[in-house]
Amino acid sequence: MASAENCFPVANGPSQPNFTIKYTKLFINGEFVDAISGKTFETLDPRTGEVIAAVAEGDAADIDKAVRAARQAFDEGPWPRMSGLARGKVLFRYADLIEQHTDELAYLETLDNGKPFLLSKYGDVDVVVKGLRNVAGWADKISGQTYKMDGPYQGMSLYEPYGVTGAIIPWNFPMAMFMMKVGPALAAGNTMVVKPAEQTPLTALYLAALAKEAGLPDGALNVVPGFGPTAGAAIASHMDINKLGFTGSTEVGKIVMEAAAKSNLKPVTLELGGKSPVIICEDADLDVAVDIVNLALFFNMGQCCTAGSRIFVQDTIYDAFVAKAVEKAKKRVVGDPFKPEVEDGPQVDETQFKRILEYIESGKAEGAKLLTGGCAVGNKGYYIEPTIFGDVQDDMKIAREEIFGPVMSVLKFKTLDEAIKRANNTAYGLAAAIVSNDIDVANRFTRSVRAGTVWINCYHVYDHSLPFGGYKTSGFGREQGLHSIHSHMQLKAIITPLKDSPWL
Ligand code: NAI
Ligand code: MG
């Protein structure tokens, strides 16, 4: 295994903003409280591995307490009974407050997760605010249909919230994933229990405090940090949670779905792993293709479910492409994520760091050609060099498994048919991309590839209005915008006789 010895020194700059950490307790029924057990766990700074704060550690008893608060808020509280307009107003106010606290949220996100501060500030907070405003705008526009039935009856469909919904959140985009689930669930009139990832609980707690300030009724949103097998499992198996949203690994997705099935058969939305292909055709502009691939894989230190991690390059341009891709990867600036020039901060924690270095070793052992990178950076924290393997074969571990780190695999292809077949030869189906100037080639690819999102001549472009989710073992259900409102509601059919009506 590669060690944490220097390949090149990490740039450790001063941490620019500096806020005190205000919220470290569980947020239940509108109050910050200790865990029932009194236990806490440490959240760490991935730049150093040092402790940032001790956070209350929720377990099954705390989840149950939170579910009871959410149940009461749903059954008796004002939230589901308010008009959509009134709910939207609270959520718009919530979005304004988040925007006003951009710096503090971005600081907490970078401190806890390690992603570049400018990305947290201009990327993640922006996604949170826009996504929330989008669903806030839907809150008063949710409507069913009337049906002309076969007989003297009138049929109507009515969208209703599920009740208490649960969400289990990952650490790669902590606040964005939090709001992707919380925003639509609340806009639809549900109440919630949310468990942030144990690596990154700080922004979720801050967002809980802002929800209260925005006027969200007590109990409508409960945030319980804790670990997966304890607090997470308690959400998945709770008998009084009516709907579950999960984002994380496919492995844990299967566990939570099984727990949901075995408890009260709560429906689940699963957004899971990926091993997304990017096809670079010989007619592509090489510089454009290299830029796309660089972003596709290295963005957020490779910690993206949609990361473009299998780069298929047409054989005629392979050598030229690889030379440019390596040159560009070498220029990426790795270092303290609070420094404005830094593009890549540390990986989120030691577990992920070690896992990625093991994948790098496996790539070497299986005969892939290490073209650049391959080492840890610096001697503290969890930094890894942007890494590219060439001559990767489809059956190598690095080409099959989700690495979730800055490790790119470049593979060679001859024909589009072959590329499509190999691109689809994976258990995953989250995203895919093609770089080509031939619209017929691009269209053929987009309709042949089994993936939930397909980019043509771009990558990592998202929008709160577009459906987001996976095919195959990348999950099911769609998030974002109206799609996520509908996935947080159930549809009721209402039938009534029509008497003396002129239109039957
Ligand atoms: P994970 O799937 O264990 O964590 C995601 C969330 O699930 C966390 O909140 C965690 O506490 C919770 N969880 C874990 N075990 C659980 C259980 N038994 N019941 C209920 N909830 C549980 O992912 P992890 O271990 O942090 O990362 C491992 C790999 O998963 C990564 O290397 C990456 O490949 C993948 N991953 C994918 C993500 C995505 O966006 N699709 C996000 C995070 C990880
Ligand atoms: Mg942390």
From TrEMBL:
Gene3D superfamilies (alphabetical): Aldehyde Dehydrogenase, Chain A, domain 1, Aldehyde Dehydrogenase, Chain A, domain 2
GO biological process per UniProt: carboxylic acid metabolic process
Residues the record marks as active site: 271
Gene Ontology cellular-component annotations: mitochondrion
Ranges where the Aldehyde dehydrogenase domain occurs: 33-494
Pfam families attached to this UniProt entry: Aldedh
UniProt GO MF annotations: aldehyde dehydrogenase (NAD+) activity
SUPFAM superfamilies found in the cross-reference section: ALDH-like
Keyword Methyltransferase on entry: no
Keyword field: NAD, Oxidoreductase
Cross-referenced InterPro entries: Ald_DH/histidinol_DH, Ald_DH_C, Ald_DH_CS_CYS, Ald_DH_CS_GLU, Ald_DH_N, Aldehyde_DH_dom
Entry-linked PANTHER family: ALDEHYDE DEHYDROGENASE-RELATED
Family: Belongs to the aldehyde dehydrogenase family.
Entry protein name: Aldehyde dehydrogenase domain-containing protein
Organism the protein comes from: Ceratopteris richardii (Triangle waterfern)
